[in-house]
Amino acid sequence: MRSIWAVATNTIKQALRMKIAAVFIILLIVLLPVMGVAMTGDGTLKGRLQAFISYSLSLTSFLLCLLTIAVSVYSLTSDFEQRQIYTVLTKPIRRFQLLFGKLLGVVLLNTALLVLFSATIYAITIYTPKFSGATKAQLAQLDNEFFTARASLTPAEVDVTDEVLDTYRKLEKSGQLPQGGSRQEIIAELTRRKRLEKRAAVVGRELLWEFHNVKPLDPNQSLFIRFKYDVSVNPPDLHIFSRWIVGDYRQVEYGAKIETPIYTFDRNDLIRTFNEIEVPADAVAEDGYLAIGFFNVPLNNTPVIFSPEDGLEVLYKADTFTANFLRAVSLILFRLVFLACLGILASTFLSFPVAILLCLVVFFTGTISGFIAESFDYLSGNLSNVYSYTIRPVITLLPQFDKFNPAKFLVPARILSWSLLAKAAFSMVCIKAFFLLLLALLIFSYREIAKIII
Length: 454
Hints:
Blueprint: H1 2-17, H2 19-38, H3 45-81, H4 84-89, H5 95-131, H6 136-145, E1 149-153, H7 161-174, H8 183-198, E2 200-201, E3 206-211, E4 222-227, E5 230-231, E6 239-247, H9 250-253, E7 263-270, E8 275-280, E9 290-296, E10 304-305, E11 312-319, H10 321-347, H11 352-367, H12 369-380, H13 384-389, H14 391-396, H15 407-410, H16 418-446
C-alpha cells in the first residue's frame, strides 16, 4: 500500500506542475463568481439561478473531464518518454501497483477539485437570493420550485390491447384496413389513437387519474399539478376553462369515510403552455392515495387532450436541495473515474497525442450517446439483426454521460433518486471503468519495457 500511495502522491504533484492544470483551475476560480453575477436566465431570480447552476456545473464538469484525460494520459506516457519507467520498475514495486497508484492520484486530485468548485457553486446558489433583495413571494417560489427535490408522477398508460385487437378485427372484416401497412404498424397506430382517446375529455366530460404511493416529505407543504392542454380546435382566446378536483376521490366514488380534504379549482389557462396548480399536500391520503379529476366545462366547445409525453405530471417535495445537489455532483465524480480509467488504459499502449485523441473521441461520443443510439436505431432498417450483434453492443459500451447529466435534475428541481445514482455508479464505475482498468492491467503486465541485448 505504501508503494501505491507513493505513486499517487507523485502523480498529484506531477499534475499540479502541469500548465494545463493551473490554467483550468484558475479559469474555474475566476469564472464561477463571474457567472454568478452575470447570469440572467429569463430575467427572473429563479431563471437566473437555473442558468447559473446549469452552466457552472457544465463548465466545471467539462474542464475537469479534460484535465482528467490530460493528467491520466500524461502521468504514464511521460514516464516512457522521459525514460523514468526504467528507474521506477527497478524498485520493489509491481506493475499493477504502479497503475493503481496513478489512478488513485488522478481520482484524489479530481475529488479535491470537484469538492472545491462544487462547494463554490453551492455557496453562490444559496446566497444569491439573500444578496439580491428577493421579495417574500420570490423566496417562496424558489423554495417550492428550485430549492427542493421534487418527485414526479405521471399517469400510467391504460391497457388498450383488447380494444385495439377488437378494432383491428372489425376493420379487417369490413375490408377497411389501411393499405400499404403491415399488421404490426397498423396495430401500433391504433394503439396510439386509443391511448389518446383515453387522455381526451370531450365537452362536459371528466377525466380521472389515480396515483398510489405518493409520499410528500412534509404534509404541511404543497404539491404541484403540472399540465399542458392540447385541443382539436383552438378556442378564440386560446384559453381553456376547467374545474379540477384534487384529493381522496374514494370518498365520492365509493362512499368511503375518509377525512382527507378534497380541493376544487376553477381555472382559465392558456393552451399548449405548461401551467401549475399548487395544492396542499394534505390532499394525499395516509395510505399514499391521490386522485386528480379534470372537468371540461361546456364553455370550451372543444375536446381537451393530455398528451402521454407532457400532458400531466404530479410534483411533490421528496428531498432537500442539498441532498439532491450532492447526488448530482456524485454523477460528475463517476464520469471522472471512468475517464481516468480510460486515460490509464490508453497510455499503456499509445503515445501521448494518440491516447489523448482516443480519450477525447470517447468523451465527446459519450456526451451525445443518446443521439448516436437513436440515429443507429433509425438507420438500422432491414439490417436489424446485423445491427443488434455488431454496432449495438459497441454503443452499449459508451459511458452515456448525457443520460446522467446533473443539470437535468437540478434545473427543474427533480429528485435524483438513490436508485438512479446507484445505477449510474454500477454502470459507469463498477462495470465500464472496472473493465477498462482490468484491460489496462492486462496490457501493461505483458508490455515489453526494455529488451535485454547480449
